[in-house]
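Postdoc handover notes: sequence design on the structure in folder B. Input tokens:
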């Protein structure tokens, strides 16, 4: 998949995962891979800047928690603002997808 296309949707995909439950970074990477048949295979260097930007915007919050294996991990939590942001990004994506599909499938025909 083209990196530019993936970059445009990364924040929306991360917000969607966090809508379901709080996760730490590695979990997000693995979930995206599993759900997308490895189409979305993020590197930490790509994901963490997006998470930090979302945190600065107030869309997510982070906290530390000790995992079952005893390691302390940084978890991310979707805020109310993040829920609104996800809704807006989803609407934008659906409008974009609809427009692309219309062009690819021939769309409305206009005489010029």
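Designed sequence:
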């Amino acid at each position: 998949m083209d990196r530019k296309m993936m970059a445009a949707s990364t924040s929306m995909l991360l917000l969607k995962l966090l809508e379901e439950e709080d996760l730490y970074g590695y979990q997000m990477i693995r979930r995206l891979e599993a759900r997308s048949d490895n189409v979305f295979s993020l590197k930490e260097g790509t994901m963490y800047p997006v998470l930090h930007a979302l945190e600065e915007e107030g869309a997510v919050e982070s906290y530390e928690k000790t995992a079952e294996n005893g390691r302390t991990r940084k978890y991310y939590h979707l805020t109310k603002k993040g829920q609104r942001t996800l809704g807006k990004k989803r609407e934008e994506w659906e409008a974009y997808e609809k427009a692309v599909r219309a062009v690819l499938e021939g769309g409305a025909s206009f005489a010029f």
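Context for whoever picks this up: The two ends are 35 Å apart (CA to CA). Don't rerun without checking with the PI first.
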